[in-house]
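Hi R.,

As promised on Friday, here is the backbone we talked about, encoded as structure tokens. Could you run it through your design pipeline when you get a chance and send me back a sequence?
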């Protein structure tokens, strides 16, 4: 049985996909009982959610450690906590330090969201970072994810964060920059420009808090960001030098 903490956009997506196959119990601070029930899950107290076999906190990264401290004494021995944060090194450190040794830990990053996976999980990616979980439950979870059409990528927390600093954090920075530049669809455009606008559209659906957290809690994001900005400045300097000729 599954317990989900948080019924924001992603918690709702998780509940939507898990409820047809499993008994899912969801806790949210504000009352969203009717919305939770519409996904096929059961609204429940935090205590009930934390007594399930698998507990999935769907909370912002900046609130994750605080949430772990709250739920740690409520978890039953043998439970498995699965995080869904878009960074991995810090959440793994927090889970290892805060959760009881009797509780298993599996770090994951579903590389899709409520928009990209609204209709299907087929060919969407999910990264698994195995921390403290036995072979049997790990393989059962992995095979279940594959059966749903997901592409499973196994990595260490460091491998994940190093790559996601470019593929997610830097991409979101470009999208936010385009938004601030008020980039809009144009009649006279190119395929490249349309792809840039697609980045902008994806980014604008996510919260500023998520954007801030994916930079603040990824040890490699700042370096990637500064390198990109330096290269952009260097290219601009070259252009200005040529324009003066």
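Update: got your reply. Pasting your designed sequence below so it's all in one thread:
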């Amino acid at each position: 049985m599954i317990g989900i903490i948080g019924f924001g956009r992603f918690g709702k997506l998780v509940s939507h996909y898990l409820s047809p196959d499993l008994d899912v119990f969801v806790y949210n601070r504000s009352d969203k009982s009717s919305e939770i029930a519409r996904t096929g899950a059961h609204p429940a107290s935090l205590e009930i959610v934390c007594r399930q076999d698998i507990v999935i906190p769907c909370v912002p990264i900046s609130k994750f450690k605080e949430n772990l401290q709250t739920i740690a004494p409520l978890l039953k021995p043998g439970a498995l906590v699965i995080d869904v944060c878009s960074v991995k090194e810090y959440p793994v450190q927090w889970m290892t330090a805060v959760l009881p040794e009797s509780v298993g830990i599996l770090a994951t990053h579903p590389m899709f969201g409520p928009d990209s996976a609204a209709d299907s999980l087929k060919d969407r990616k999910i990264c698994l970072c195995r921390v403290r979980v036995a072979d049997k439950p790990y393989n059962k979870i992995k095979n279940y994810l594959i059966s749903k059409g997901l592409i499973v990528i196994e990595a260490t927390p460091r491998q994940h964060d190093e790559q996601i600093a470019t593929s997610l954090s830097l991409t979101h920075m470009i999208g936010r920059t385009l938004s601030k530049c008020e980039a809009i669809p144009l009649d006279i455009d190119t395929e490249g420009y349309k792809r840039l606008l697609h980045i902008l559209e994806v980014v604008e659906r996510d919260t500023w808090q998520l954007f801030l957290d994916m930079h603040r809690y990824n040890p490699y994001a700042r370096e990637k960001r500064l390198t990109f900005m330096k290269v952009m400045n260097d290219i601009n300097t070259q252009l200005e030098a040529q324009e003066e000729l």
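One thing I noticed while checking it: The chain is about 50% helix and 15% strand.

Thanks again,
M.
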